[in-house]
Amino acid sequence: MATIRNLDPATGELLAEIPITTPTDLDAAVARARAAQLAWAETPPEERFARLARAGEKLAERKGQLGELVTYEMGKTKRSAVGEVQGYATGIPRMLAEVAEAIEPQSFEGTASDTVLVRDPHGVVAAITPWNFPFGMPLEILIPALATGNTVVFKPSELVPQTGAALAEILADELPAGVLETVQGAGDVGARLVAADVDMVGFVGSRETGMKIMESASRGLKRLVLELGGKDPMIVFADADLDAAAESAVQHSLRNTGQVCCSVERVYVADTVADDFEKLVVSKAREWKHGNGFQDGVKMGPMVSEEQRGKVAAQVDEAVRDGARLLLGGEPDGRPGYFYPATVLADVEASQRISYEETFGPVVSLTTFSGSEEEGVRLANDTPYGLGANVWTGDAELGRRVARRIRAGQVGVNRYLTGASGTPWVGARQSGFGFLGGVEGHRQFTTPKSIAVAKA
Ligand code: ADP
Q1: By the number of CB atoms within 10 A of the CB, which of 306, 310, 318, 392 ranks highest?
Q2: Hey, whose CA ends up nearest to atom 4 of ligand 1?
Q3: Candidates 3.40.309.10, 3.30.160.100, 3.30.300.30, 3.40.710.10; CATH matching 232-423
C-alpha cells in the first residue's frame, strides 16, 4: 500500500505513515458526495448552520490537542498553533451569519413578473489546501461550501494529513453521511480530484498549482476559487514611524517562519532613513529565536520540509553572491530538523531571484529607494502577484493615495494589511481567481438563479 511518510520537521523523524487514497477509493468518495448532495441542498439552511456551529464548538473544545498535532506535523510554535485553532473555530458562527446573508433570497419587482433571486449550491466541491495554516485554510473553504448546500471532498496537504483527518472527522461527525469526504495524497491525488466528477474547486496554494488546476478545470467549465501566493511589498517613506514600521516588517516577514502567503517579502525603504531602519530591523529580528515549536521562548519553529528550506537557502545564497549584504542569519546551524534562522538582507536588487520569486521563508529583504511616491508605487507593482501591500508614512493622504494605486487585494496603511472582519480576502492579478470570505466571497460557492412569476 502506498503511504505518505509524515515527518516531524523539528527532527526529521517519521511520525506516521498515512495510506494514500487509491484512484478507485477517490472515485467512490466523490460518488458518495454526489449522492448526498441533493438532500443536503434541500436541508433547511438553519439546520445546516446548526450542525456546522456544533462542529465549531467541538473544534474549539479540542484546541489543545489539535494545536499539538499542527505543531508536530508542520512545526509552528504551539502557541500560534493553538491560537490558529481557537481563532478559526470560534470564528465559525460569524462565517455562518455571513453565509446566511449571502444566500438570503432577494426580491425584484418588474412590470410583468415578481422575480426572486435565489442562490443554488454548485454541487460537489473539491477542497484542496496547503500546510502553512493546516487548520484555518481548510475551514475558509469547508464552512462556506458546506453551509451553502454543497457537499465536499477534501484533500489536505500531504504534509499535514493527520491534522486534515482530525479536522474533517470532527466536522463529518455532525453531518449526514457523504456530505464531507476526505482523501489523502500529494499533487497527483489533487489532480485526480480536480478531474473527477466535481463541480467546483476551492484551492489555496501556490500560483503554479493554481494554473494547473485552472487548466484541468476548463475541461468541465468547473467553478473555481483560487487563493494563491504573493510577493507583498512594504513601502517605508522617510516620514514614517520607523520603529513601528520595522516592528511590522520583522513580525510579518518572520511569522510562521515566513511561511505565509501574505508575508512581507520586499521592503523598500527611503534612502534618507535606510541606515536607521536597517539597525532597527536587525535588532528586532535578533529576538526571533528559532527552535522546536513545543519549547517555551521560541518564536519560530522549523520550516515545514527540507525542500522548502532548500529553496529559501538557495535564494539567500544567490542574493549574497550577487552583492546583497547579509546582516543577520543566512546559515542553518546544523542541528537536525529543517531549521533556518531569522535572516536579514540589505541592498537586494530587482534582478535577484529573491526579489521576484516568492520566498516563503524567514527573511527580511531590504532595498533602498529614492523615497518618491512614483518610485514607491512602481516598485510595489513590479510583480505579477497582487495579494497584499503595506505602506508606512506620516502623511495619511499620501498613504491612502499610494494604497489606491497599488494593485493588490488588501493594503495596510501604517499597519499590517488585514482588514476589519467581514472584508473578503482577495488575491488580485496572479495571486488568485475569485476570492474567499465576506458575504461576496461566500456567494462564490453558489450560482444565482432568478425565478420570475407572472403577475396575476
Ligand atoms: P504549497 O507547497 O505551498 O502547499 P502547492 O500548490 O504545492 O503549495 O500545494 C497546495 C495543495 O495543492 C496541496 O494539497 C497539494 O497536494 C495540492 N496539489 C499539488 N499539485 C496539485 C495539482 N496538480 N492538482 C491539484 N492539487 C495539487
Answers
A1: 392
A2: 130
A3: 3.40.309.10
